[in-house]
Amino acid sequence: xxxxxxxxxxxxxxxxxxxxxxxxxxxxxxxxxxxxxxxxxxxxxxxxxxxxxxxxxxxxxxxxxxxxxxxxxxxxxxxxxxxxxxxxxxxxxxxxxxxxxxxxxxxxxxxxxxxxxxxxxxxxx
Length: 125
Prior knowledge:
Organism: Sphingomonas pseudosanguinis
Structural class: mainly beta
Helix content: under 10%
Radius of gyration: 14 Å
Number of helices: 1
Order of helices and strands: EHEEEEEEEEE
Protein name: Lipoprotein
């Protein structure tokens, strides 16, 4: 199996309700108690079980789509959507992002001791 092109991964996140968190764009407002972005499952710091505690936001850089995964403690990771079939790669930091296919609508991403489940379109190629 191969993770399809970057547009499919980014599109899946956008369709699921990801936003920039600005008022008027479907995100949380200053008076909203909700976190901006799409809620995703994560297992942080080597945790064995996943919790729906993280959020992911999408933004476009000059030549790439960047996903910012936010942790409940204020920490975050940035991932770059790739076009080579890997799905995502670490956009900053020294640790690589390891990607695995977890069904036809989800990928698993591991960076260091942190694990995330991201929505994605996966196709056989």
